[in-house]
Amino acid sequence: MGQIVDIGRRIELVPMDSYFHDIAIALYQQQPAIGPSFLVHTYSRIEGASQRIQFVVDAMRTLGGMELTKSGLLRFPCGTDHQLGCKRVFLEACKSDPMQLVESRSDTIFDKKSNCDMTVLSYGNGRYHVTANSDESGTERRVSAITGGLIKLGDMIAVDEEKSDQVAFSCGCSHDALVGLLLVRAPNVRAAVREQQMTASRGVLSSPSQQE
Ligand SMILES: [Zn+2]
């Protein structure tokens, strides 16, 4: 188990990577002096596995607006762990088609339930405002459902009890790429959480010595 302790605490796992030989890919959290940082790791020794890990790391930088530390770990520029958000970035990066260019998500989604576009606007200092391009009745409730989704998925906070269309990151910094990524799943948080639980329960990552 020494190896596992050395690379940090495992916080998320994709037990069977559908894009690369069903290998297990895990996300580890470390606590170096510069603040919480993340490592994407596999125990697989299949040729090309390290390139696959590099793809996931690059995709996480794009999708989550994360940066690389000198030692090659991922972190958010604000220095906060945003662990829940980071897990989501990791899962989405693993699901990104390696044959396609990975691009950060838009700030707008089409919401089926309200039949309109929902946009998340940055107010700066980590504050965001969810707006709908419709004034039909019920839209306001959908906006607050999506805001609630952002809070649950990204561990964001409500700005003001009265303003159910506003959310913020507790670090006080903007994370536009991350909020765009979370917005895609915000209309259906339950499905997103269920998927995460199923992924986690499908297998456990074992070190090479345990696989023998
Ligand atoms: Zn932050």
Radius of gyration from CA coordinates: 18 Å
Bound ions, cofactors and other small molecules, one mention each: zinc ion
Figure out the total of helices.
7
Q: Shape, please?
A: globular
Q: Would you tell me the structural class of the helices and strands? A: alpha+beta
**How many separate structural domains?**
2
Into which percentage range does the β-strand content fall? 15-25%
Low-confidence stretches: 1-5, 205-212
Distance linking N and C termini = 15 Å
The oligomerization state is single chain
The percent of residues in helical segments reads: 25-40%
Q: Mean of residue pLDDT?
A: 90
The largest sheet, given as strand count, sense and whether it forms a barrel, is: 5 strands, antiparallel
Order of SSEs = HEEEHEEHEEEHEEHHH
Strand order of the largest sheet: 6-7-8-10-9
Record field, number of beta strands: 10
What does this structure look like?
The protein has 7 helices and 10 strands. The protein has 2 domains: 2-101, no CATH class; 108-193, Gyrase A, domain 2 (2-Layer Sandwich). It is α+β, with helices and mostly antiparallel strands and 212 residues long. It has helices at 2-7, 49-64, 83-95, 139-154, 176-185, 189-201, 208-211; strands at 9-14, 25-30, 37-41, 67-68, 74-75, 108-111, 116-124, 127-132, 157-160, 163-168. Strands 6-7-8-10-9 form a 5-stranded antiparallel sheet. 37% of the residues lie in helices and 24% in strands. Strand 2 and strand 3 (37-41) form a beta hairpin. Bound molecules: zinc ion.
Features:
212 residues; alpha+beta; Gyrase A, domain 2; 2 domains; five-stranded antiparallel sheet; three-stranded antiparallel sheet; 7 helices; 37% helix; globular; disordered N terminus; disordered C terminus; binds zinc ion
